Amino acid sequence: MKENRNIHHLKKKTRFPISKIKKIILQNEEIGKTASTVPVVLSKAVELFIKEVSTNVYKSLDESDHKITLEKLEAVLNSERYSILLKK
To answer: What are the Cα distances from residue 47, in Å, to 30, 78, 87?
Structure first.
């Protein structure tokens, strides 16, 4: 019972719509049934990933230039830390 309350609490705090994440999961035929917590956890993971990437891009900016451009974002995403995301 306590676990259900925690899940309900997390659902309210997510920034990405759980229903859209469920739809994306259901579109993949290789994925069978999933627990109700999966979309909630994925939503939080996406939120943390975007926060980390944007923080790293911001740290890479010059003091005189505070504008995030596609080139600066790509430079961060092409670093070794995010190499697993790149298709080879």
So the answer is: 24, 20, 22
| Three-state SS at 84 | helix
Cα–Cα distance measured from residue 46 to residue 32, given in angstroms and rounded to the nearest whole number: 21
What distance lies between CA 85 and its chain's CA centroid?
12
Number of domains in the chain: 1
Nearest of 68, 65, 47 to residue 56 by alpha carbon = 68
CA 19/CA 35 separation, integer angstroms:
14
pTM > 0.85: no
- The distance in angstroms from the start CA to the end CA of the chain is 45
pLDDT recorded at residue 10: 55
- Could you tell me the mean pLDDT of each successive run of 10 residues in the chain, 88 residues long? 56 77 89 87 91 87 78 86 76
Residue 17 lies in domain: 2-85
